[in-house]
Design brief:
The protein has 107 residues and is mainly α. 79% of the residues lie in helices and 0% in strands. Helix 1 packs antiparallel against helix 3 and helix 2 packs antiparallel against helix 3.
């Protein structure tokens, strides 16, 4: 990507990164409320060598997050935890939007 196209992709990455930070904060707040402790060791950060690879890595990550959210929602339903279910459903909605944006950028 060059010029305007590169700038557009950069804005998408920036916007999604901000939303991801909000997701992490929501997770941490809910875990704390439920009496747990959130992980303080960050996961390995995967990167790409170019914009296409970065988009592919991020799309794969979003798809993994979608599956994790669905599992947490199933668990919340089993535990009759409406608040956790709602929090994660909201995150799932945004995560699916992120995956869609990355998919569109990949063409």
């Amino acid at each position: 990507a060059r010029g305007v196209e590169r700038e557009k992709v950069g804005e998408v990455f920036k916007d999604i990164a901000m939303e991801e930070m909000k997701h992490a904060e929501s997770f941490a707040e809910r875990i704390h409320y439920l009496g747990g402790t959130h992980a303080t060791i960050p996961m390995e950060i995967k990167t790409g060598e170019n914009i296409k690879e970065m988009l592919e890595v991020d799309l794969a990550s979003e798809n993994e997050s979608i599956e994790a959210c669905k599992e947490i929602i199933r668990m919340a339903i089993r535990e009759d935890d409406v608040v956790t279910r709602t929090v994660i459903e909201n995150i799932l909605t945004e995560t699916e939007e992120h995956a869609n944006k990355f998919g569109k950028l990949l063409g």
